[in-house]
Amino acid sequence: MKKCFATMLVIMMMLSLVSCGQKPEETPAPQTTPAVSEPVASTTAPEIPAWKPTKTITLICPFNAGSTGDAFSRPFAEIMSKIAGVNVVVENMGGGSGSVGTNYMLSQPADGYTFSYHSNTGALTTAAGTAPFGVDDVLPLVNICSDYHVLSVLKDSPYKTLDDLVQAELDNPGSVRFGGAQVMGNNHLFALNMFRDAGFTAANYIPYDDGGSSALGLLGKNIDCLFSTASTVVGYIDSRDMRVLAYTLSDRIEAQGDAPTFAEEGFEHLNGYISFKGMFINPDCPQKVLDWYKDVTAQVCESKEWKEFIAKQGQIDTFMASDEFNAFYDDYVANATELFAAAT
Fold first, then answer.
1. Does position 30 have pLDDT exceeding 60, yes or no?
2. What is the enclosing helix (H) or strand (E) of 178?
3. Superfamily for the 57-146+275-343 domain
């Protein structure tokens, strides 16, 4: 019996060992190589650091100290200094109807530390071919303000309306004595635009040295009517020694009472005709410099301080940012070039 039990125990142990030895092996997980991502090309251009001046900026006023250009350049520089956080100083450099100063600005390094003021005088000397630079040699930055133009007569003039004057000249070409400041200046261009739109064939334009002397010419009855900026004759209009037949703004303003605009009278080329003032720079400056100037000069013009200043000066807020002013400037020069060529 004991022998039989021992035999059975041995058999059970052997079966247990066999069972353990036949346990199936685990299948090892397949070995994989980690995927390596291919570099993806960036579609975003690297950001160009914004430019900011680190030293004094010079604003060239191409007219003498005490001039109209000087009177507008200095407050502009003062406000710009506050906004830019760097000193902006005005340097007067008169001569050549503003060409000397502008040419000097263009001769300086195109690094953003020199820019210039100019009025439409610069555009007119370019159109007349007397400037040492072309229309593409300067970049208009911003139109800071403008004066508009008026056609005035004496208070007792027989020409009660613009139509009276136009009809008199059409009926008898060359009979009306038109006057204004300078030849190939803004008043001359004003006159030529009117002559073209009115269909005058032999209109007589009498030039004076400046606005003041041309106003005296009308008061002295040496001319029958006067082409001028509104600011030139505002005192005479207020005193009622002169009256305005029409003016060049697109819409009527209270200051001109019942006088019509040229636009209302059908004068296409005098609709919005202005004597502009602006800031210019060398177009060869790096784009980031130009972008900074466009932004900062626009901020000056939009400031409350600047708006209050030009209002006191009797100027019209005709703010134009760089792109709009650039297109306006090119058209202005092209129109003046055509009319001046026809007049010579």
1. no
2. strand 177-181
3. Bordetella uptake gene, domain 1 (3.40.190.150)
